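Ticket 4471: requesting a sanity check on a complex prediction with adenosine-5'-diphosphate. Repro inputs:
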Amino acid sequence: ATPSPRRPIRDLPDELISQIAAGEVVERPASAVRELVDNALDAGARQITVRLAAGGVRLIAVEDDGCGIPRDELPVALRRHATSKITNLHDLESVATMGFRGEALAAIASVSEMALLSRTAQQASAFALDARSGELRPAARGTGTTVEVKELFFSTPARRKFLKSDTTELAHCVEAVRRHALARPDVGFAIWHEGRLVEQWRASAAPDVDADAALRQRLGDVLGDDFLRNSVPVQLRLGAVTVTGRAGLPDAARSRADQQFCYVNGRFVRDKVLTHAARTAYEDLLHGQKQPVYALYVQIDPQRVDVNVHPTKIEVRFRDSREVHQAVRHAVENALAAPRAQALAAASA
Ligand code: ADP
Ligand code: MG
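Returned C-alpha coordinates:
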Protein backbone atom coordinates (compact mmCIF):
# COMPACT_ATOMS: atom_id res chain seq x y z
CA ALA A 1 0.00 0.00 0.00
CA THR A 2 1.18 3.54 -0.69
CA PRO A 3 1.92 5.51 2.47
CA SER A 4 -0.64 8.17 3.33
CA PRO A 5 0.56 11.61 2.17
CA ARG A 6 -1.13 13.12 5.18
CA ARG A 7 0.95 15.02 7.72
CA PRO A 8 -0.14 16.13 11.15
CA ILE A 9 -1.99 19.42 11.60
CA ARG A 10 0.14 22.06 13.26
CA ASP A 11 -0.16 25.73 14.18
CA LEU A 12 1.90 27.87 11.86
CA PRO A 13 4.67 29.92 13.46
CA ASP A 14 3.70 33.56 14.04
CA GLU A 15 6.29 34.91 11.66
CA LEU A 16 4.98 32.69 8.85
CA ILE A 17 1.38 33.74 9.54
CA SER A 18 2.42 37.36 9.10
CA GLN A 19 4.34 36.56 5.94
CA ILE A 20 1.30 34.83 4.49
CA ALA A 21 -0.89 37.81 5.43
CA ALA A 22 1.72 40.10 3.88
CA GLY A 23 1.06 38.40 0.55
CA GLU A 24 -2.46 39.84 0.62
CA VAL A 25 -1.64 43.28 1.98
CA VAL A 26 1.73 44.08 0.42
CA GLU A 27 2.02 43.31 -3.23
CA ARG A 28 4.69 45.88 -4.05
CA PRO A 29 6.33 48.97 -2.50
CA ALA A 30 3.28 51.09 -3.38
CA SER A 31 1.07 48.91 -1.17
CA ALA A 32 3.34 49.59 1.80
CA VAL A 33 3.32 53.31 0.98
CA ARG A 34 -0.47 53.29 0.93
CA GLU A 35 -0.72 51.56 4.31
CA LEU A 36 1.84 53.86 5.94
CA VAL A 37 0.17 57.00 4.59
CA ASP A 38 -3.20 55.64 5.79
CA ASN A 39 -1.68 55.35 9.25
CA ALA A 40 -0.25 58.87 9.14
CA LEU A 41 -3.67 60.27 8.18
CA ASP A 42 -5.37 58.27 10.92
CA ALA A 43 -2.86 59.83 13.34
CA GLY A 44 -4.09 63.29 12.35
CA ALA A 45 -1.00 64.32 10.38
CA ARG A 46 -0.99 67.71 8.60
CA GLN A 47 2.22 67.06 6.73
CA ILE A 48 3.41 63.70 5.37
CA THR A 49 6.78 63.17 3.76
CA VAL A 50 7.57 59.99 1.85
CA ARG A 51 11.21 59.17 1.11
CA LEU A 52 12.04 56.37 -1.28
CA ALA A 53 15.11 54.66 -2.66
CA ALA A 54 15.23 52.26 -5.61
CA GLY A 55 11.52 52.68 -6.30
CA GLY A 56 10.74 51.89 -2.66
CA VAL A 57 12.43 48.47 -2.64
CA ARG A 58 15.55 49.67 -0.82
CA LEU A 59 13.77 52.21 1.36
CA ILE A 60 10.34 53.58 2.17
CA ALA A 61 10.29 56.11 4.99
CA VAL A 62 7.01 57.81 5.84
CA GLU A 63 7.31 60.71 8.22
CA ASP A 64 4.31 62.44 9.80
CA ASP A 65 3.49 65.08 12.39
CA GLY A 66 0.57 63.12 13.81
CA CYS A 67 -0.17 62.09 17.38
CA GLY A 68 2.73 59.67 17.69
CA ILE A 69 2.88 56.26 19.37
CA PRO A 70 3.69 56.15 23.12
CA ARG A 71 6.95 54.41 23.96
CA ASP A 72 5.30 51.43 25.63
CA GLU A 73 3.01 50.84 22.68
CA LEU A 74 5.71 50.75 20.01
CA PRO A 75 6.17 46.97 20.26
CA VAL A 76 2.38 46.51 20.35
CA ALA A 77 1.98 48.45 17.08
CA LEU A 78 3.96 45.73 15.33
CA ARG A 79 1.84 42.88 16.60
CA ARG A 80 -0.71 41.20 14.37
CA HIS A 81 -4.33 42.23 14.93
CA ALA A 82 -3.28 44.97 17.34
CA THR A 83 -5.00 48.28 16.67
CA SER A 84 -5.97 51.48 18.47
CA LYS A 85 -8.82 52.13 16.03
CA ILE A 86 -11.60 49.75 16.97
CA THR A 87 -12.40 47.77 20.08
CA ASN A 88 -15.63 45.95 19.19
CA LEU A 89 -18.00 44.94 16.42
CA HIS A 90 -20.03 48.11 16.81
CA ASP A 91 -16.93 50.20 16.05
CA LEU A 92 -16.25 48.09 12.99
CA GLU A 93 -19.71 48.80 11.61
CA SER A 94 -19.21 52.54 11.71
CA VAL A 95 -15.45 52.77 11.22
CA ALA A 96 -14.24 56.23 10.24
CA THR A 97 -10.50 55.57 10.11
CA MET A 98 -8.52 54.25 7.14
CA GLY A 99 -7.18 51.33 9.16
CA PHE A 100 -8.86 48.99 11.63
CA ARG A 101 -7.49 45.51 10.92
CA GLY A 102 -4.23 45.94 12.81
CA GLU A 103 -2.39 44.05 10.10
CA ALA A 104 -0.30 46.41 8.06
CA LEU A 105 2.71 47.05 10.27
CA ALA A 106 3.01 43.37 11.26
CA ALA A 107 2.70 42.28 7.65
CA ILE A 108 5.20 44.79 6.28
CA ALA A 109 7.64 44.11 9.14
CA SER A 110 7.56 40.39 8.35
CA VAL A 111 8.87 40.98 4.82
CA SER A 112 11.29 43.86 5.43
CA GLU A 113 13.58 45.48 7.93
CA MET A 114 11.34 47.90 9.76
CA ALA A 115 12.05 50.58 12.31
CA LEU A 116 9.59 52.85 14.11
CA LEU A 117 10.59 56.25 15.43
CA SER A 118 7.92 58.09 17.32
CA ARG A 119 7.14 60.72 19.88
CA THR A 120 3.87 61.81 21.45
CA ALA A 121 3.28 65.39 22.56
CA GLN A 122 3.54 64.30 26.22
CA GLN A 123 6.96 62.66 25.89
CA ALA A 124 10.22 64.48 26.52
CA SER A 125 11.97 62.47 23.84
CA ALA A 126 11.26 60.18 20.92
CA PHE A 127 11.90 56.43 20.93
CA ALA A 128 13.09 54.17 18.18
CA LEU A 129 12.17 50.51 17.87
CA ASP A 130 14.00 48.08 15.63
CA ALA A 131 11.43 45.51 14.58
CA ARG A 132 13.83 42.61 14.09
CA SER A 133 15.92 42.92 17.25
CA GLY A 134 13.20 44.48 19.39
CA GLU A 135 15.75 47.02 20.59
CA LEU A 136 14.07 50.16 21.95
CA ARG A 137 16.16 53.27 22.55
CA PRO A 138 15.72 57.03 22.97
CA ALA A 139 16.01 59.05 19.77
CA ALA A 140 15.47 62.56 18.52
CA ARG A 141 12.50 63.98 16.64
CA GLY A 142 9.46 66.20 17.16
CA THR A 143 5.93 64.93 17.79
CA GLY A 144 4.91 62.38 15.20
CA THR A 145 6.04 59.14 13.67
CA THR A 146 8.51 57.91 11.10
CA VAL A 147 8.15 54.38 9.82
CA GLU A 148 11.16 53.12 7.95
CA VAL A 149 10.92 50.06 5.72
CA LYS A 150 14.12 48.74 4.22
CA GLU A 151 14.79 45.90 1.79
CA LEU A 152 11.19 45.00 1.12
CA PHE A 153 10.76 41.29 0.28
CA PHE A 154 14.41 40.52 1.11
CA SER A 155 13.22 37.35 2.85
CA THR A 156 10.75 36.41 0.13
CA PRO A 157 12.78 36.37 -3.11
CA ALA A 158 9.85 34.89 -5.04
CA ARG A 159 7.86 38.06 -4.39
CA ARG A 160 10.83 40.27 -5.08
CA LYS A 161 11.20 38.72 -8.51
CA PHE A 162 7.75 39.98 -9.48
CA LEU A 163 8.76 43.59 -8.97
CA LYS A 164 9.19 45.77 -12.03
CA SER A 165 11.90 48.34 -12.68
CA ASP A 166 12.61 51.00 -10.05
CA THR A 167 11.02 53.57 -12.35
CA THR A 168 7.79 51.59 -12.56
CA GLU A 169 7.67 50.88 -8.82
CA LEU A 170 8.33 54.56 -8.12
CA ALA A 171 5.44 55.52 -10.41
CA HIS A 172 3.13 53.19 -8.45
CA CYS A 173 4.32 54.70 -5.15
CA VAL A 174 3.64 58.21 -6.44
CA GLU A 175 0.20 57.11 -7.63
CA ALA A 176 -0.56 55.72 -4.16
CA VAL A 177 0.26 59.07 -2.55
CA ARG A 178 -1.61 60.95 -5.28
CA ARG A 179 -4.79 59.03 -4.39
CA HIS A 180 -4.47 60.13 -0.80
CA ALA A 181 -3.60 63.68 -1.76
CA LEU A 182 -6.78 64.03 -3.84
CA ALA A 183 -8.85 63.10 -0.79
CA ARG A 184 -7.08 65.38 1.69
CA PRO A 185 -6.40 68.93 0.51
CA ASP A 186 -5.98 69.85 4.18
CA VAL A 187 -2.80 67.76 4.42
CA GLY A 188 0.55 68.55 2.80
CA PHE A 189 2.42 65.79 0.97
CA ALA A 190 5.98 65.51 -0.31
CA ILE A 191 7.63 62.61 -2.11
CA TRP A 192 11.39 62.26 -2.40
CA HIS A 193 13.26 59.67 -4.43
CA GLU A 194 16.97 59.24 -3.78
CA GLY A 195 17.32 62.79 -2.51
CA ARG A 196 15.30 64.37 -5.31
CA LEU A 197 11.92 66.01 -4.67
CA VAL A 198 9.50 64.18 -6.98
CA GLU A 199 6.17 65.73 -5.97
CA GLN A 200 4.99 68.27 -3.46
CA TRP A 201 1.40 69.23 -2.72
CA ARG A 202 0.98 71.94 -0.14
CA ALA A 203 -1.76 71.87 2.47
CA SER A 204 -4.61 74.23 1.83
CA ALA A 205 -4.39 77.31 4.06
CA ALA A 206 -8.07 77.33 5.03
CA PRO A 207 -9.70 74.00 4.18
CA ASP A 208 -12.50 74.55 6.71
CA VAL A 209 -13.45 78.00 5.49
CA ASP A 210 -13.84 76.98 1.86
CA ALA A 211 -13.67 73.23 1.27
CA ASP A 212 -14.62 73.60 -2.41
CA ALA A 213 -11.79 76.00 -3.09
CA ALA A 214 -9.36 73.75 -1.23
CA LEU A 215 -10.38 70.73 -3.28
CA ARG A 216 -10.23 72.70 -6.52
CA GLN A 217 -6.74 73.85 -5.69
CA ARG A 218 -5.59 70.33 -4.82
CA LEU A 219 -7.12 68.82 -7.97
CA GLY A 220 -5.25 71.41 -10.02
CA ASP A 221 -2.00 70.78 -8.18
CA VAL A 222 -2.21 67.01 -8.52
CA LEU A 223 -3.92 66.48 -11.87
CA GLY A 224 -2.86 69.70 -13.59
CA ASP A 225 -4.64 72.88 -14.63
CA ASP A 226 -5.87 71.10 -17.76
CA PHE A 227 -8.01 68.90 -15.58
CA LEU A 228 -9.61 71.94 -13.91
CA ARG A 229 -10.15 73.79 -17.19
CA ASN A 230 -11.73 70.75 -18.83
CA SER A 231 -14.02 69.65 -16.02
CA VAL A 232 -17.18 70.83 -14.28
CA PRO A 233 -18.11 70.69 -10.61
CA VAL A 234 -20.28 67.85 -9.33
CA GLN A 235 -22.60 68.42 -6.40
CA LEU A 236 -25.66 66.39 -5.59
CA ARG A 237 -27.44 64.98 -2.61
CA LEU A 238 -29.82 62.09 -3.14
CA GLY A 239 -31.31 60.55 -0.04
CA ALA A 240 -28.51 59.38 2.20
CA VAL A 241 -25.82 59.87 -0.43
CA THR A 242 -23.85 63.02 -1.23
CA VAL A 243 -21.67 63.19 -4.33
CA THR A 244 -19.16 65.97 -4.94
CA GLY A 245 -16.03 66.45 -7.03
CA ARG A 246 -15.42 67.22 -10.68
CA ALA A 247 -16.32 65.49 -13.91
CA GLY A 248 -14.24 65.95 -17.05
CA LEU A 249 -15.80 67.33 -20.21
CA PRO A 250 -16.18 64.83 -23.06
CA ASP A 251 -13.21 66.41 -24.86
CA ALA A 252 -10.98 65.59 -21.90
CA ALA A 253 -11.67 61.85 -22.22
CA ARG A 254 -8.63 59.65 -22.64
CA SER A 255 -7.80 56.36 -24.22
CA ARG A 256 -6.97 54.89 -20.82
CA ALA A 257 -9.00 54.93 -17.62
CA ASP A 258 -6.09 56.36 -15.69
CA GLN A 259 -7.80 59.48 -14.36
CA GLN A 260 -10.85 58.06 -12.66
CA PHE A 261 -10.69 58.64 -8.95
CA CYS A 262 -13.54 57.44 -6.74
CA TYR A 263 -13.74 57.93 -3.00
CA VAL A 264 -16.17 56.63 -0.45
CA ASN A 265 -16.05 58.52 2.85
CA GLY A 266 -12.53 59.69 2.01
CA ARG A 267 -11.24 56.25 1.07
CA PHE A 268 -9.98 55.61 -2.47
CA VAL A 269 -11.89 52.66 -3.88
CA ARG A 270 -12.19 50.64 -7.03
CA ASP A 271 -15.83 49.90 -7.40
CA LYS A 272 -17.91 48.65 -10.31
CA VAL A 273 -21.08 50.37 -9.09
CA LEU A 274 -19.37 53.77 -9.09
CA THR A 275 -17.51 53.41 -12.38
CA HIS A 276 -20.59 52.02 -14.10
CA ALA A 277 -22.74 54.86 -12.81
CA ALA A 278 -20.24 57.46 -13.99
CA ARG A 279 -19.83 55.75 -17.34
CA THR A 280 -23.60 55.69 -17.83
CA ALA A 281 -23.75 59.44 -17.26
CA TYR A 282 -21.41 59.89 -20.25
CA GLU A 283 -23.31 57.42 -22.42
CA ASP A 284 -24.47 59.76 -25.15
CA LEU A 285 -21.40 62.02 -24.90
CA LEU A 286 -18.55 59.59 -25.34
CA HIS A 287 -18.15 57.24 -28.21
CA GLY A 288 -15.99 54.21 -28.75
CA GLN A 289 -13.44 53.33 -26.13
CA LYS A 290 -12.91 56.85 -24.78
CA GLN A 291 -12.60 56.93 -21.00
CA PRO A 292 -13.97 59.87 -19.02
CA VAL A 293 -11.85 61.59 -16.38
CA TYR A 294 -13.26 62.44 -12.98
CA ALA A 295 -12.69 62.72 -9.27
CA LEU A 296 -15.84 61.79 -7.39
CA TYR A 297 -16.35 61.84 -3.66
CA VAL A 298 -19.22 59.86 -2.22
CA GLN A 299 -20.28 60.56 1.35
CA ILE A 300 -22.58 58.01 2.88
CA ASP A 301 -23.57 56.88 6.33
CA PRO A 302 -20.76 54.46 7.32
CA GLN A 303 -23.43 51.99 8.39
CA ARG A 304 -24.55 51.73 4.77
CA VAL A 305 -21.20 50.63 3.42
CA ASP A 306 -19.03 47.67 4.38
CA VAL A 307 -15.32 48.48 4.06
CA ASN A 308 -14.22 45.16 5.49
CA VAL A 309 -14.43 43.24 2.23
CA HIS A 310 -10.81 43.01 1.20
CA PRO A 311 -7.53 43.13 3.18
CA THR A 312 -6.42 46.20 1.25
CA LYS A 313 -9.85 47.85 1.68
CA ILE A 314 -9.78 48.99 -1.93
CA GLU A 315 -13.15 47.31 -2.45
CA VAL A 316 -16.32 48.15 -0.59
CA ARG A 317 -19.85 46.77 -0.53
CA PHE A 318 -22.85 49.06 -0.42
CA ARG A 319 -25.91 48.01 1.49
CA ASP A 320 -28.06 49.57 -1.24
CA SER A 321 -25.98 49.80 -4.38
CA ARG A 322 -28.93 51.06 -6.46
CA GLU A 323 -29.18 54.14 -4.30
CA VAL A 324 -25.47 54.86 -4.76
CA HIS A 325 -25.59 54.15 -8.49
CA GLN A 326 -28.48 56.56 -8.95
CA ALA A 327 -26.85 59.28 -6.91
CA VAL A 328 -23.57 59.10 -8.81
CA ARG A 329 -25.24 58.86 -12.18
CA HIS A 330 -27.53 61.81 -11.54
CA ALA A 331 -24.73 63.85 -10.01
CA VAL A 332 -22.55 63.46 -13.08
CA GLU A 333 -25.46 63.86 -15.51
CA ASN A 334 -26.48 67.11 -13.83
CA ALA A 335 -22.91 68.38 -13.94
CA LEU A 336 -22.74 67.60 -17.64
CA ALA A 337 -26.15 69.08 -18.51
CA ALA A 338 -24.83 72.40 -19.81
CA PRO A 339 -21.97 70.86 -21.83
CA ARG A 340 -24.44 68.30 -23.22
CA ALA A 341 -26.85 71.03 -24.36
CA GLN A 342 -23.96 72.82 -26.07
CA ALA A 343 -22.85 69.65 -27.82
CA LEU A 344 -26.38 68.99 -29.06
CA ALA A 345 -26.75 72.58 -30.27
CA ALA A 346 -23.44 72.37 -32.09
CA ALA A 347 -24.43 69.07 -33.67
CA SER A 348 -27.75 70.39 -34.99
CA ALA A 349 -26.32 73.69 -36.22
P1 ADP B 1 -4.36 49.62 11.81
O1 ADP B 1 -4.02 50.84 11.03
O2 ADP B 1 -5.36 48.76 11.10
O3 ADP B 1 -4.74 49.92 13.22
P2 ADP B 1 -1.52 49.03 11.57
O4 ADP B 1 -0.78 47.75 11.64
O5 ADP B 1 -1.43 49.81 10.32
O6 ADP B 1 -3.05 48.70 11.90
O7 ADP B 1 -1.06 49.95 12.79
C1 ADP B 1 -1.16 49.45 14.11
C2 ADP B 1 -1.32 50.58 15.11
O8 ADP B 1 -0.10 51.32 15.20
C3 ADP B 1 -2.38 51.59 14.77
O9 ADP B 1 -3.66 51.18 15.23
C4 ADP B 1 -1.88 52.85 15.46
O10 ADP B 1 -2.30 52.88 16.80
C5 ADP B 1 -0.38 52.69 15.44
N1 ADP B 1 0.23 53.48 14.34
C6 ADP B 1 0.70 53.01 13.17
N2 ADP B 1 1.21 53.99 12.42
C7 ADP B 1 1.07 55.13 13.13
C8 ADP B 1 1.40 56.51 12.90
N3 ADP B 1 1.99 56.91 11.76
N4 ADP B 1 1.10 57.40 13.88
C9 ADP B 1 0.50 57.01 15.03
N5 ADP B 1 0.18 55.73 15.31
C10 ADP B 1 0.45 54.80 14.37
MG1 MG C 1 -2.98 50.85 9.21
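Notes from triage: The longest strand covers residues 231-238. Leaving this open until the requester confirms.
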